[in-house]
Amino acid sequence: MRKPTQNDRCLVAGGAGFIGSNLCRHLLKDGISVDVVDDLSTGRMENIAELRQNPSFRFIKGDVADENICQRLPHRRYSQVYHLACPTGVPNIELLGEKMLLASSAGTLNLLKVAQRSRAKFLFASTAEAYGDPQVFPQPETYAGNVDPIGPRSPYEEGKRFGEALTRYFGQKHGIDTYIVRIFNTYGPGMSPTDQRVIPQMLARLIQKKPVVIYGDGSQTRTFLYVDDLLAGFRLVIERGEPGAAYNIGGSDPVTIRDLLETVKKASGLTGRGVHKQHFIEDHRGRWPDTAKVRALGWRPKVSLEQGIRRIHQDFCEEVGLHTSTSRSKTEAPFMSTSELPRATFSAQERRSLYDQFHRV
Ligand SMILES: NC(=O)c1ccc[n+]([C@@H]2O[C@H](COP(=O)([O-])OP(=O)(O)OC[C@H]3O[C@@H](n4cnc5c(N)ncnc54)[C@H](O)[C@@H]3O)[C@@H](O)[C@H]2O)c1
Predict the structure, then answer these.
(1) What is the Å distance from ligand 1's center to 36 Cα?
(2) Topology of domain 9-186+224-249, per CATH?
(3) Which of 137, 157, 264, 353 is the most exposed place for a label (fewest CB within 10 A)?
């Protein structure tokens, strides 16, 4: 197997989502053609609107769990297949749990077959939630986790664990180079301001001058990684990683959710307060990746939490036509230029409300 060249195409399943659309942008920048298959269940056409102007980019709307869609995909050879297609967001577990399970089971099998036909490398986007509610800190890849197979989070967690098992087994059986990345909380441009994940949620609430909801006492911890650093890790894993192996990729410093709110306020210059609520679902006390394995491939994250928050804050504000006091310096690497950034959408009503709230400050 070899590196993709400018004559190759990559397939990005879930490419209209937050991470997927950033991945497509990186691949296209390197001159690699990209096909996206996405059913838009949690992704957005706005994320790929500007990419669709590029003749090397092709969008196919479809569900990866549908065998017919995947069988029709490889009209030409793919050198790499990235499987990021899965509905995300804890509040979506109740609504889209079945789709989560199918995307990670039938969807993974269908995409592995696409990779097999193309002799492509295959990367499965797994999650820190494969460890469930961990009892070991930090979590190395060898830790088997603490997961309830019929717990409230199981459609997402067990779906991903099944996807991992299938990815490894299929690769070994059919001689396909497969890789598993366990992604810990990642954020950045391309997330919708209505995204329920913690950083976009905090920013959107602060911009709207609404109290920020903190579940429980806020002492639960997470690590946070800027999306460009995640994508640098993807590249190293797929180019230099060990086939069949799993790699954690995530931020290195655990932050309590309470402290995260203070960091978001400091980085964005926004003000506001948190309100404590009981979580609507069983919460995990902490997640913290042991990243020694991916670091051994040469990976080092470059973007600090404050830098990254400023970037996503600016992205949200550009969306609603607001100016921030934390505008990004044009020389600040490795961010993309404003014209390259994906656009998120607010409804007309949300936009008006955000604009009104902001100008009342
Ligand atoms: N962002 C994170 O912090 C994080 C953490 C752990 C794991 N991940 C994983 O990374 C991947 C990308 O996450 P994201 O943050 O970009 O979320 P996202 O919701 O923005 O992207 C997921 C994309 O997959 C698409 N999709 C869902 N089901 C599909 C199906 N059956 N067929 C085709 N497309 C489908 C959605 O429409 C969306 O565009 C997901 O698999 C997610 O589980 C993300």
Answers:
(1) 13
(2) Rossmann fold (3.40.50)
(3) 137
